[in-house]
Amino acid sequence: MALYAELHRHLGGSVVPRILWRYFQRSDANLADRFPEYASFEDFYTKPRNTLDEYLELHTLVEGVQTTQTLPYFISRLIRGAYIFENLAYLEIRYTPYLRTSPQLSQSERIDQMAEIVEIVGKATQTKEYPIITSQILCMHSRLPYEVNRAIVELAAQSKGYVCAVDLAGGDAHYAERLDEFVELYALARSLDLKTTGHVYETQSGCYPELIPYLMRIGHGIQIPLQYPELLSELAANGQCLEVCPTTYLKTGTLEDIRQLKLVFDRCFDAGVDIAICTDNAGLHNVRLPFEYENLLTYDIIGFEELQACQDAAFRHAFAWPYQQRPASLLNGLFQASINDTGNGSLGREFAEIAD
């Protein structure tokens, strides 16, 4: 069995359309009236948008219903689907905790409530029924004030049992006016021994070389190989990894054709820059991780050797994966041990070949 790692999945975009629609029908009369039929809701929820900003507005639809009361429900569905349908062994869930707090509270009260949100998410992901190793990435947000973003970094440092890293989200075109502020916050994160990633170089309006030195991984980053390939040697030397989410760029209007990603993969492989293939918003896209793999193969963007290299890179760059090897390698070791113990070489070799 091949087991995978997902390094870039947003909690707000992780809920698949049917589960979200059923929740509306049971619990939200206004949204139930707005979308009485599932087909119309799926079309609205998953259709491509013209810009990244327009696309990100959809997150507000989900953030408003992901509360202290409902988060366990949504996360249990996320973990179940990830285990059963995606064969995930490892999952990093990223989100902005402030946007799950009660809007009726003051800013300082909402900052205080963020710790409760992190604990709720952490406990909800720990299930024996679907044994996936999970961790949280807390996202600063380009449209939140400095005080809130600093509190997010500090909370991440205080919650390392649940949290593995910090991120910056909210649309990379909006960082420019506050770039010094975000550099300061990333420097703070590194000083607190936090791991870091960030949504940069996703669009042509979001290219900030000032942030690159602070990032251990780069969220998306496709404009580096497309527009600034001279930076690839620096990324390779620093061991930085791109989190490439193929379907996203079609949904946001960033790319017109998925085959444009071939140049991204080719230039990164040639330069020795690792890529982890991710979904970003699996529910919002109605696309799971194995389909992202299949799509890249179908369009001859990568081959099977490159796919395996990307799968290996995902575990190698996972912030909280506790083992030296990926699951397939661990399974091969178990099969080999079984061969040695039982002497059933023929059957054991067949299983080992399947695991390969």
Largest sheet: 5 strands, parallel
Q: Based on CA inertia axes, which overall geometry fits?
A: globular
Beta-strand fraction estimate:
5-15%
In what order do the strands lie side by side in the largest sheet? 1-2-3-4-5
Low-confidence stretches: 344-356
> What number of domains?
2
CATH uppermost class of the largest domain: Alpha Beta
Question: CATH topology of the largest domain, which one?
Answer: TIM Barrel
Q: Please tell me the CATH architecture of the largest domain by its name.
A: Alpha-Beta Barrel
Give an account of the 3D structure.
By secondary structure, the protein is α/β, with parallel strands linked by helices. It folds into 2 domains: 4-322, Metal-dependent hydrolases (TIM Barrel, Alpha-Beta Barrel), CATH 3.20.20; 327-356, no CATH class. Helix content is 51%, strand content 13%. It contains 17 helices and 9 strands. It has helices spanning 17-27, 29-34, 38-46, 52-63, 71-86, 107-125, 146-158, 179-191, 223-227, 232-238, 246-251, 261-271, 282-285, 289-298, 304-316, 327-342, 345-355, and strands at 4-10, 88-95, 133-141, 163-169, 195-196, 199-200, 217-220, 241-244, 274-277. The strands form 2 sheets. Strands 1-2-3-4-5 form a 5-stranded parallel sheet. The protein has a 4-stranded parallel sheet with strand order 6-7-8-9. Strand 4 (163-169), helix 8 and strand 5 (195-196) form a beta-alpha-beta unit. Helix 16 (327-342) packs antiparallel against helix 17. The longest helix has 19 residues, at 107-125. The chain starts with a strand and ends with a helix. GO terms for molecular function: adenosine deaminase activity; metal ion binding. Belongs to the metallo-dependent hydrolases superfamily. Adenosine and AMP deaminases family.
